[in-house]
Amino acid sequence: MRFHVLTLFPDMVKDCLETSILGRAQEKGCVSFHTVNIRDFTEDKHKKVDDYTYGGGAGMLMQAQPVYDAWKSVREKAFSDCSERKRIRTIYVTPQGIPFTQKLARELASEEELILLCGHYEGIDERVLEETVTDYVSIGDYVLTGGELPAMVIIDAVSRLVPGVLHNEESAETESFHNNLLEYPQYSRPEVWHGKRVPDVLLSGDHKKIEEWRLKQSRERTRERRPDLYLTYEKDQGAISNLYRQKLLHMDMIQVLGRGTGKLLHMDEDGCAVRDLMTGTIFLTAEEHTAKPLLSHIQNAVTENLERGKLLAVHQAELAAAVREKYDGYCFTEQICRLFVYTKDVPLKPAHHIVFRELTENDLPVVAEHYHDDVVDDIAYLKDRLRKKSMLGAFLEEKLVGFIGMHGEGSIGLLHVLSDWRRKGVGAALEAEMINRLLREGRTPYCYVREENEASAGLQEKLGLYPAKGRVHWLCGSRR
Ligand code: ADE
Predict the structure, then answer these.
(1) CA of 12 to the centre of ligand 1 (A)
(2) pLDDT of residue 366
(3) What is the pLDDT of residues 310-343, one digit of tens each?
(4) Crossing angle of helices 20-28/10-17, nearest 10°?
(5) What is the CA(94)–ligand 1 centre distance, in A?
């Protein structure tokens, strides 16, 4: 992931980002930081970048021209290095922005490029903000002297969620704010300190009991210290228990909410809508008679998705029809899938004769040569999956014979076995390996199978996954 920081004080930013974990992550190539001195772009012969404000008032304002040209130079650079000319998120850090949260950090971590614009003096000319900024973000209700510290706070919080930045991937999963709960208390040696004993359960070696104790502590701590967060947690839990009434059909939504990577957009007797923050996909479910009311509750979110080319995962045919009817200014592509869920917690038998290895960006040519899908932009998507360490290769005699992956929203997919190796159990072995890895992370494995793909449905049943009764309609809209 690459961060571009537009600033009048590039040294301040560089010094900070080259130190400690972020410096190491940059050396490893997981993230890169590119600072741009806005002053280098001024057309003023005295290198001035600020001027008085129209209408009077104290202080100076950063002018539009140097900011715009600095931003344009970054956008051009990002475009030339990128396979597609998509919109690059530009964040203006300002006390007037939306609060920066762990959820937003997670959402931003799924971007490939991010521009951060740091203001100074009294701010920046409004006209250039209108033309460049996609997100206004504040790090808290207080005013700092400039945008560099907030930009660095955001970069730090986002970077540590990029795969490979932290040594222990697990620590980004279990800590404070995961799932809207604060972290439980932790203890290290000695067992007794100042007369205080480490809680007995932590010494018991009973992992189930330890997990239960930690969850209880997290909940109590959150309720006491952050009642606002606890309310969100309770709402998500309420939605999860409602979704459990049709567990198989809703397993995707349950998992997204349960992992803390989903934002509950709506939940009541009209239905439920969840946005997956990793991909932007909105998952929707409603009864036939509540399809229209549900859509009216989440009108803006759906419009935003259609405008941004993000997907809708609609869990009923009637609801999909209601989407088409309501948004008749768009034409839709649709993929109808069955959801298969691995509901047990027993691992599958591993294939010892096959070596499994996480694939990297170096494997892109071979993966792209073999994997094709008519919906996703293959190369950019595969590159993203590889960068996020979400693909697994199967090797026989050191030769890649097949691969599988995790989609951005958390389902298993991207399965392909090279033609010479078909009908030898490689596909089943790959999926079993992926399922076992997910079980070790405490997740419930599931995948979508296109309605017409009988072979894949057969494989799922052979591996012990259960099909949901309904269908998931994946919709992507574009303006007519
Ligand atoms: N710039 C100045 N103060 C700020 C804050 N609290 N958040 C983001 N940017 C800022």
Answers:
(1) 16
(2) 93
(3) 999 999 999 999 999 999 999 999 999 999 999 9
(4) 80
(5) 4
Best of 8, 94, 117, 129 to mutate for ligand 1, by most ligand atoms within 8 A of CB?
Answer: 94
- Rounded CA separation 264/272 (Å): 8
Give the C-alpha separation, 281 to 302, whole Å: 10
142 lines ligand 1 (CB under 6 A): yes
Amino acid sitting at position 228: D
Ligand 1 atom with the smallest distance to the CA of 140 is 6
445 prior amide bond cis, ω within 30: no
Residue with tokens 């050191």: 398
DSSP 254-267: HHHHHTT-EEEEEE
Cβ atoms < 10 Å from Cβ of 332: 16
The reply to whether the predicted model has a pTM over 0.70 is: yes
Pairing relation of β-strands 399-406 and 412-417? Answer: antiparallel
From the CA of 101, how far away is ligand 1's center (Å)? 14
Residue 205, pLDDT above cutoff 80 = yes
Residue 411: the pLDDT is 97
CB 139 less than 6 A from any atom of ligand 1: yes
* pLDDT reading at 170 higher than 50: no
